[in-house]
Q: What sequence folds into this?
């Protein structure tokens, strides 16, 4: 580990350094040096002297710092004298730089400061272009400024040669004064400086930058700092909108400034190409009524101390978002905080105790990753007025632990002084505090009362102080000793009186670094720190166990000392009265603007827990566009759904918010592996549920839905979901995922949930199935599902060769999907997602709607008209479908119901207060047979057996509504109503044929309490008119809307659909959850559509939601109230078009 230094300045301007390779503080060799502030970087430290000059201390290294000065001697040939330094008036100077624009005679070169010395005299560079030359270093050319070469030609009229001289930096290891700018005007006296920027995120290991603040509030930037020019060359003023009091630069591209009005400025646009940045952004002080006092930044952290000495942490800060996202309050009171390498934190404590021997004391503390290995132990009782040395460091020893225990009689030798003689604590707020603190030295030293002198009754009323495990207890020797002799004597006395104070009552301290006695720091001269800088101090995780930092930390005399600690690990940040943890990673983001492509991004999830238990989380996505750093952020409490999606065989998922749902613009991210995607989904889902207070299994009133990918989603509704006024908008609904893979799900308000897989397997929900991605998935049932993937082979007929794969230029691809818009071959077609695996080979599919010939072909006159299974004279194109099966295996709260495979299922809806011993469940087998499940109840949700209901043709859709109304659709589109169904006769008696809408073929229907809705093959939604208890078959069909894929009618006759698309978004993937607004007893057909989450949704079930909204307006618990959405129906309402005749018994 390289040796680094921690720097500190006391009230007298004396500079100290503490090496990571040493065990004690060392004072600077220059005893006359007095500095006000220091700022450290890698291998160097800058300071502002009391004479207002800037000083630099470069750490000694094996390689010396050398700088090469060079100048060029120029000559021109003439016929009389040959080559001479007599040039034409238009020529360059006889001695100049390489460009010839600036004169540079040898005598004009001067050393920039006393820190440099010449290594030798000027000499000619004998090489030309890096290669040895025999021409004495001369280079020839036709004229200035042509290209020079070492070869002299007949037309070479000018020549030049380079002179070189080296100078060496000799001030390494000492404090050297930086010379004033000449001839430029130097800045006004500086009051603050900050070093940073040596680890720009664009490129690591660069030289540092230096920023300064003048007493008039101007900001200056030091130009020309280079590894060979450590002092820099000149100061450049950076415009600021307001006067600046203090600033802090991080190792990367962060720069924050403190204004005189207490607010803060953030410099944006910092980069290697623009080291001074581009603009300022103002950030308000963390305290509403208290101004900021000090700011310190690191690689990706910002700490602020306000004038009430409270410490604040800025969350969400990084190079993409230098302003951050919010403030977090930290416990304790500090005078200043400094951030070092790897975002390690050093602090200077505000003094609490008023019973000090001299001036107020301060302390320096470093908290590193190793702090997380040890936790606080039980507090011990000590005297509140006694000096207690305490810090959140992993090594703790009693005072004088390295020495032999003193005899008890030494406790009487400790002098005492009245408490009223102790000086009052003074909290400095500017440079003017030095004289005030120094003036305390004139007073006679007053000693602290020892612990042994305290009365026994006082020792019983003690403030707790945390005590950590000590190396001594673990059998390790402590390689350093305490030098606070006044406090040490008191501690030795405390050891002698330990029996009277009880176990562990003796004063305990952390290991302390010693000061050099040779530097004149004695017992009465303990340093009082005014400034610290750890920008160049790198404390390793393991080395921190032996790195001493503390000088003095006193305990608060009135109330228990506030424990203040900071654990910084790659993904966790713990604070005392607030906790923040951060999860960072890398994902791929689908950039859905041109050019659309996957982009590698960094992501971070930050969650803070406030003192009252409330949690606040933000999800960040950091990306770079045209070399400009940008970011996206999503507030977790605004996320409405996290759902896996199918995107180019990536492990992808989409993040929706209300605004992104409206714009149909989800945030799509992809992980490298399935495990990474599941980890992120688990983490984000848990945060979403915690922010909304959701836990446990879905409620009985929940809405269930499935996506085209097979994921099961659930929404726990509020009373306002179906309220007549202030209806909750669909884009505000929060959906959470339930483990499992299904094609459709149906439920009722008694908590019964049935589902059907893509392979027709029936499943019943067995709970608890919390919507949160719980890690206890081993308790779930193993669930498998199989689905088929299809591609179409297309051919066109021509007179010469018959049917061939040579189509017209305007034809669809010869291998495509069903729509013909996308090319899909058997070679480039993959399973729906990486979780699936092939279980069969490609084969011709003969089970295609419309039928096929013996080879599986379907014929049509042209693309894309309707195909049929036999060839005619007018058929010029044909196609056939190839299928291949794939399988997925997962665990979920689902119990299989063997042995019949189903294609559709329906549970009778009921009100929440209903009580039923047997719940009617109707289903269709994969062959179209009608089935009735017996024995289904809340205690036995899977039921006992299937009862076959006879039909004369196969069915494709079935639904049971209120009062045991059973409706079904045959595969030819005919509609039937089952009569006489009752609890006593669950299978009913006969089927009544209901005429379909004119020239329309229905494919799916849903029955509510008093209404029936159906969807035809053209995606039109129909409503059955005239339903009465005496005439349950109704009288006519009325067209409601188009653009509908599936419909679900609930127990309150509420209507929800899966829309084929969202108006205004033609590129949206089909399948959006939508809600019919305005449905009521007087308006059963509703008024308009409210489009919610989508696309890619396959099925929705509202049949479990029987929560009737209370009368009158009610505020939404899950979000702001909204008025009913405007009319967004994609098709106008039409009057009744058909009237049916009497029902016919079949």
A:
């Amino acid at each position: 580990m390289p040796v680094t230094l921690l720097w500190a300045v006391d009230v007298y301007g004396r500079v100290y350094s503490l090496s990571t390779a040493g065990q004690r503080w060392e004072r600077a060799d220059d005893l006359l040096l007095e500095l006000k502030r220091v700022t450290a970087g890698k291998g160097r430290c800058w300071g502002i002297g009391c004479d207002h000059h800037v000083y630099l201390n470069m750490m000694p290294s094996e390689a010396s710092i050398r700088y090469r000065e060079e100048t060029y001697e120029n000559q021109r040939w003439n016929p009389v004298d040959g080559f001479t330094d007599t040039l034409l008036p238009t020529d360059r100077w006889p001695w100049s730089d390489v460009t010839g624009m600036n004169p540079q005679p040898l005598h004009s070169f001067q050393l920039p400061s006393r820190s440099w010395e010449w290594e030798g005299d000027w000499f000619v560079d004998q090489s030309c272009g890096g290669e040895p030359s025999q021409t004495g270093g001369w280079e020839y050319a036709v004229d200035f400024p042509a290209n020079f070469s070492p070869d002299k030609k007949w037309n070479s009229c000018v020549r030049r040669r380079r002179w070189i001289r080296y100078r060496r930096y000799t001030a390494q290891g000492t404090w050297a004064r930086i010379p004033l700018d000449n001839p430029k005007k130097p800045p006004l006296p500086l009051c603050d400086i900050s070093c940073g920027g040596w680890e720009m995120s664009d490129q690591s290991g660069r030289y540092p930058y230096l920023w300064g603040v003048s007493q008039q509030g101007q900001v200056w930037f030091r130009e020309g700092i280079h590894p060979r020019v450590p002092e820099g060359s000149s100061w450049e003023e950076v415009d600021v909108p307001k006067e600046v009091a203090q600033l802090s630069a991080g190792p990367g591209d962060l720069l924050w400034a403190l204004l005189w009005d207490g607010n803060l400025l953030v410099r944006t646009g910092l980069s290697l190409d623009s080291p001074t940045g581009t603009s300022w952004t103002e950030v308000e002080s963390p305290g509403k009524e208290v101004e900021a006092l000090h700011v310190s930044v690191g690689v990706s952290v910002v700490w602020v101390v306000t004038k009430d000495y409270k410490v604040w942490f800025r969350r969400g800060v990084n190079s993409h978002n230098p302003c951050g996202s919010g403030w977090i309050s930290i416990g304790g009171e500090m005078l200043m905080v400094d951030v070092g390498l790897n975002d390690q934190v050093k602090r200077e404590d505000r003094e609490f105790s008023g019973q000090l021997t001299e001036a107020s004391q301060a302390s320096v503390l470093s908290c590193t990753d190793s702090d997380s290995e040890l936790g606080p132990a039980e507090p011990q009782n000590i005297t509140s007025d006694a000096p207690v040395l305490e810090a959140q460091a992993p090594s703790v020893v009693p005072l004088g632990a390295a020495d032999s225990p003193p005899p008890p009689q030494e406790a009487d030798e400790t002098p005492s002084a009245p408490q009223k003689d102790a000086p009052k604590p003074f909290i400095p707020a500017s440079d003017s505090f030095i004289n005030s603190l120094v003036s305390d030295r004139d007073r006679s030293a007053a000693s602290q009362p020892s612990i042994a002198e305290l009365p026994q009754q006082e020792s019983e009323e003690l403030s707790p102080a945390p005590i950590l495990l000590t190396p001594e207890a673990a059998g390790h020797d402590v390689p350093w000793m305490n030098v606070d002799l006044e406090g040490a004597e008191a501690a030795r006395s405390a050891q002698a009186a330990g029996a009277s104070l009880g176990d562990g009552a003796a004063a305990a301290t952390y290991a302390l670094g010693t000061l050099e006695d040779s530097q004149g720091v004695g017992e009465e001269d303990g340093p009082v720190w005014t400034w610290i800088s750890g920008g160049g101090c790198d404390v390793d995780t393991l080395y921190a166990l032996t790195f001493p930092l503390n000088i003095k930390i006193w305990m608060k005399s009135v109330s228990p000392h506030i424990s203040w600690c900071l654990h910084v690990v790659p993904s966790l940040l713990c604070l005392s009265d607030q906790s923040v943890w951060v999860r960072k990673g890398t994902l791929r983001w689908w950039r859905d603007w041109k050019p659309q492509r996957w982009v590698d991004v960094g992501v971070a999830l930050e969650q803070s827990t406030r003192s009252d238990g409330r949690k606040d989380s933000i999800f960040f996505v950091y990306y770079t566009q045209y070399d400009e750093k940008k970011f996206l952020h999503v507030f977790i409490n605004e996320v409405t759904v996290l759902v896996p999606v199918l995107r180019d065989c990536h492990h992808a998922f989409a993040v929706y918010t209300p605004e992104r749902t409206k714009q149909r613009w989800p945030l799509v991210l992809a992980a490298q592996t399935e495990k990474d995607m599941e980890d992120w989904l688990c983490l984000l889902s848990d945060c979403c549920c915690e922010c909304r207070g959701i836990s446990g299994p879905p409620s009985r009133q929940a809405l269930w839905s499935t996506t085209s990918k097979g994921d099961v989603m659930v929404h726990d509704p509020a009373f306002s979901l179906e309220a007549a006024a202030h209806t909750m908008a669909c884009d505000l609904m929060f959906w959470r995922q339930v483990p499992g893979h299904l094609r459709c799900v149906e439920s009722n308000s008694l908590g019964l949930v049935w589902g059907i897989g893509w392979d027709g397997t029936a499943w019943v929900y067995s709970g608890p199935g919390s919507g949160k991605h719980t890690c206890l998935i081993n308790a779930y049932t193993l669930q498998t599902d199989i689905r088929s993937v299809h591609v179409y082979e297309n051919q066109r007929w021509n007179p010469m060769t018959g049917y061939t794969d040579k189509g017209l230029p305007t034809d669809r691809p010869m291998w495509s999907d069903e729509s013909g818009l996308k090319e899909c071959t058997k070679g480039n077609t993959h399973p729906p997602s990486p979780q699936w695996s092939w279980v069969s080979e490609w084969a011709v599919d003969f089970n295609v709607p419309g039928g096929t010939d013996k080879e599986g072909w379907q014929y049509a006159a042209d693309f894309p008209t309707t195909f049929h299974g036999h060839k005619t004279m007018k058929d010029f194109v044909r196609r056939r479908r190839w299928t291949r099966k794939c399988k997925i295996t997962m665990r979920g709260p689902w119990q299989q119901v063997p042995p019949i495979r189903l294609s559709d299922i329906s549970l009778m809806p009921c009100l929440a207060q209903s009580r039923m011993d047997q719940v009617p469940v109707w289903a269709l087998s994969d062959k179209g047979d009608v089935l009735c499940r017996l024995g289904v109840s809340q205690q036995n949700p899977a039921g006992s057996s299937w009862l076959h209901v006879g039909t004369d043709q196969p069915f494709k859709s079935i639904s049971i509504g209120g009062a045991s109304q059973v409706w079904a659709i045959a595969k030819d589109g005919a509609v039937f109503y089952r009569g006489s169904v009752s609890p006593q006769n669950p299978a009913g008696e006969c089927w009544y044929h209901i005429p379909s809408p004119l020239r329309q073929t229905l494919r799916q229907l849903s029955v509510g309490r008093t209404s029936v809705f159906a969807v035809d093959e053209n995606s039109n939604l129909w409503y059955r008119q005239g339903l009465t208890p005496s005439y349950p078959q109704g009288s006519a069909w009325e067209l409601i809307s188009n653009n509908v894929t599936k419909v679900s009618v609930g127990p309150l006759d509420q209507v929800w659909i899966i829309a084929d698309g969202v108006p205004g978004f033609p590129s949206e993937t089909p399948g959006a959850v939508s809600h019919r607004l305005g449905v009521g007893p007087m308006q059963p057909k509703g008024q308009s559509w409210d489009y919610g989450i989508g696309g890619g949704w396959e099925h929705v079930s509202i049949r479990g939601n029987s929560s009737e909204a209370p009368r009158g307006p009610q505020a939404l618990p899950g979000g702001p109230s909204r008025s009913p959405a405007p009319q967004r129906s994609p098709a106008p309402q039409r009057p009744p078009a058909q009237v049916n005749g009497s029902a016919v018994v079949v």
In short: The two ends are 91 Å apart (CA to CA). The first strand starts at residue 5 and ends at 10.
